[in-house]
């Protein structure tokens, strides 16, 4: 590598781009510090969106969202990410079909395992899951967040860099008013791998739809902050109680 | 659980708090969407800070930063997080001493393994690592981000919910003008566990200092975005090249 560090930074368009605003002034004078309240509102507004409108997401917005995603801390600055953008309706439809087939198989197994469960109850659960999957597949664009298993910090890429980039991506999408959903089992790994023919060297962190929500969901239950914050020691601090789940 | 969902939400102070601004209006009319550029700047400004001023971080700021941290997506809404806040100078000093001792041991081993390396080169590397560790321990407050191994989605907590909360925390700190550093090996897990007597049921994601940076670092090299974005397929898309690392 004969390129100098400064050249590399310029090459990446960093000094002339969004980073140009970085100052070495003290925290109080920093522009990013002028309105923390506005930023804090964004975190609380990020919600899992389970139904989307067909309205398109302009490529220009997506580029800015992905540009935010890659700004997270990354082990030894390796930036081991791949963002696979899928808009192709045939691919989206194939993922939907495969996810519904996987669900059907699971419910067949459930029915065999839970013979005492009423058919009506099982059918109601199945129908709810089908609606949820249909909702997941109603967005105009999907991003599969992947990390490179051959990067020099591959363990950290999978455990840290990957989820962080996905977290950034979803917040940035929210800043544009788009909804997202951090899906793992919701759209199984094996299905994205097969339908999108993802090479084995890449490990999926999650897949998220990006789109205009078909209505923002009701806020979900959140623990009180003080249940999760301990000072100086965790001894005597009670464990979190399980949260009932009903999406 | 006899509490209703609405009561739980009210109990958590959500409907009357920061979430009160959530609207079900379309994306274009959403307040969070009015200034995406301001939000996007925040992502790019988040940097790993390796030296801090002693200026205190008011508890009120810390509360808001932690409030943001817990807003990330979480498997089955379990919110399996514990945030252990450490301000006690004796504990911080004990972690520093143990981290320096661990470094000394590693360099002894390095010297034995790399007999061909010049003593001067080894000493220069050691001194640089000592300066880095001293810098990590110059902040007034530390947050250990942990997840509960007994939560009902403990695997997802460790792989997803934990790093996401840490990512949110560091961005929120940046909104206030504070620096952070997502430390894993920088302050070894075993050292925080021993010095802070962390119960075995909690798994550490990372520890981060929070404080006013002693100067913002120079921007580091970032890959071009297009190296990491693929459309529809990863076939034919070149792997990321390793990044030379020199913090």
Descriptive report:
Two copies of one chain form a homodimer. The longest helix of chain A has 25 residues, at 89-113. Mean pLDDT of chain A is 87; it is low at 1-34. In chain A, helix 3 (59-69) crosses helix 6 (154-175) and helix 4 (89-113) runs antiparallel to helix 5 (119-136). Chain A has a four-stranded antiparallel sheet, with helices on both faces. With 247 residues, chain A is an alpha+beta fold. Chain A has a domain at 49-216: NADH Oxidase (3-Layer(aba) Sandwich). Chain A has helices at 5-11, 36-45, 59-69, 89-113, 119-136, 154-175, 189-195, and strands spanning 81-86, 141-148, 179-180, 202-211, 229-231. In chain A, 42% of the residues are buried. The interface between A and B is large, with 124 and 123 residues.
How many extended strands of chain A?
5
Average pLDDT over all residues of chain A: 87
Strand content of chain A: 5-15%
The structural class of chain A is alpha+beta
With strands numbered from the N-terminus, the spatial order across the biggest sheet of chain A is 1-2-4-3
Identify the most extensive interface between protein chains: A-B, 124 and 123 residues
CATH class of the domain at 49-216 in chain A: Alpha Beta
The ordered string of helix (H) and strand (E) elements of chain A is HHHEHHEHEHEE
Percent of residues in helices of chain A comes to 40-55%
**CATH second-level architecture of the domain at 49-216 in chain A:** 3-Layer(aba) Sandwich
Q: Kindly report the name of the CATH homologous superfamily of the domain at 49-216 in chain A.
A: NADH Oxidase
Largest sheet of chain A: 4 strands, antiparallel
Q: What is the approximate shape of chain A?
A: globular
Overall radius of gyration of chain A: 21 Å
Topology-level CATH name of the domain at 49-216 in chain A: NADH Oxidase
The termini of chain A sit apart by 50 Å
The count of helical stretches of chain A stands at 7
Oligomeric state, counting identical vs distinct chains: homodimer
Low-confidence parts of chain A, pLDDT < 50 over ≥5 residues? 1-34
């Amino acid at each position: 590598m004969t390129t100098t560090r400064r050249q590399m930074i310029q090459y990446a368009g960093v000094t002339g781009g969004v980073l140009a605003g970085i100052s070495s002034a003290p925290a109080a004078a920093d522009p990013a510090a002028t309105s923390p309240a506005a930023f804090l509102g964004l975190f609380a507004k990020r919600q899992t969106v389970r139904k989307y409108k067909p309205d398109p997401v302009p490529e220009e917005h997506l580029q800015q969202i992905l540009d935010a995603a890659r700004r997270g801390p990354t082990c030894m600055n390796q930036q081991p990410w791949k963002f696979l953008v899928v808009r192709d309706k045939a691919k989206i439809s194939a993922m939907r079909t495969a996810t519904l087939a996987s669900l059907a198989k699971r419910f067949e197994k459930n029915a065999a395992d839970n013979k005492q469960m009423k058919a009506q109850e099982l059918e109601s659960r199945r129908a709810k899951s089908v609606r949820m999957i249909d909702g997941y597949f109603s967005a105009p664009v999907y991003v599969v967040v992947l990390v490179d298993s051959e990067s020099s910090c591959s363990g950290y890429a999978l455990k840290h860099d990957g989820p962080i980039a996905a977290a950034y991506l979803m917040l940035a999408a929210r800043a544009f008013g788009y909804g997202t959903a951090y899906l793992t089992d919701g759209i199984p790994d094996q299905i994205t791998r097969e339908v999108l023919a993802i090479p084995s060297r890449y490990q999926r962190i999650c897949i998220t739809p990006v789109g205009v929500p078909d209505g923002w969901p009701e806020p979900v239950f959140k623990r009180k902050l003080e249940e999760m914050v301990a000072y100086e020691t965790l001894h005597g601090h009670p464990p979190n109680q399980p949260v009932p789940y009903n999406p």
